[in-house]
Amino acid sequence: MSVFHSWLRQAARWLEIAIAIPLVLAGGAMVLVVLGGVVFRYVLNDPLMWSEELARYLMIWIGLVGAAITLKHGEHIRINAIRQRLPALLRLAGDIGVALAIAWFLWIMTSQGWEAAWRGARQSAPTLGVSMFWPLLAVPVAGALMLLHHLLRTLLLITGGLAEDDPEPGALS
Fold this sequence. Notes:
With 173 residues, the chain is mainly α. The chain has one domain. It has helices spanning 3-43, 51-72, 88-120, 133-136, 138-158. α1 runs antiparallel to α2 (51-72), α2 runs parallel beside α5 (138-158) and α3 packs antiparallel against α5 (138-158). The radius of gyration is 20 Å and the shape is elongated. The two termini are 13 Å apart. 21% of the residues are buried.
């Protein structure tokens, strides 16, 4: 394995760790918020008005940003029936075509998500009272993180740095 490929794989690992730590913290916070909401509603008979909304926004962040890790590990939906029957050169050309389409989609997701977040900044969440910019920011952040992982994977694909046993078209580990 070349130094360049090793560097790309290391960058992908560090990016995954940087994504996973806040996801774990958000997951723990979501559990505590939901548990607190249940205790206050059914034990203390004094419901927290904001707990469901906060848990919903945390779940959106976890789902969208967690998709970046899914993309890194190649666990997104794909159909390999035709791809596996192609000669190596056509398989590579198809993989590059798919990689370009995914990158284009992720760029649109990021740029349009950023615009939507800014448009939503003037609105407030009903019970939390925070700007809707923060919940809506999950879309462009997730798009940018997925795009980073995807670009690292695509560089490995183009330069021959993906091992044969790596699931195509995704894993970097």
